[in-house]
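Re: that chain you flagged

S.,

Sorry for the slow reply, it's been a week of failed gels. I finally had a moment to sit down with the sequence you sent. For the record, here it is as I used it:
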Amino acid sequence: YKYLGKLQTELKNIDAAATAYKKASDLAPEDKKASLLKDLSTAYEHVGKYDDAANTYQQYIDAAAPGSLVETYNKGRIFYKAVSDTTITADQKKHYIEAGDALFKEVAAKDDSYLGPFWSARINSALDPDNPNETSMQQYSEALKRLESKDASYNSRRVECLRYMTFYYFKKDDIANCVAYADKVLSLSPDDSLAKQIKAAAAQLKKK
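Prediction finished late last night. Pasting the structure tokens below so you have them in one place:
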């Protein structure tokens, strides 16, 4: 029944998948039941039923890992995926951004990893991709601070933070900071096209 549930998930037959996982849960030993909730959550997510996915994932957390920051973060990722779904309404998008942000900020408050503020910044940036916002700017700044002790393998994360800051200052017409952050991006990623474009545009603005 578990594998039937997986198959029905791939076929996007969510009602059949849910029925299969419910039957698997009825038959499973107690120590296996929780993982089936996680599978069911994935099935809901697979077909865009994000509220059901998040609610089922919370049931999994309550059963298998109460208070787990890792699982709180994973639940937040469900909302992040929802935000990128072009079929949702503006109100749904706002709801998912707020729900995901709350979870990522909960992780950030309880753990000194960069992940909480980094994903908070990411999900808030979806509010208006063409116009950077203060919340994402603050969260990327905090993530960058928490990345200071990390090695070069984290440079792609640093670049993402710095690119947002470059874009933020460009939109604010703060040319000095814009160029300074573009240079920081290029020091880590010399071929970064956004940093190059913004730096060139900033140079043109400076001439006017």
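What I noticed first: The mean pLDDT is 93.

Talk soon,
D.
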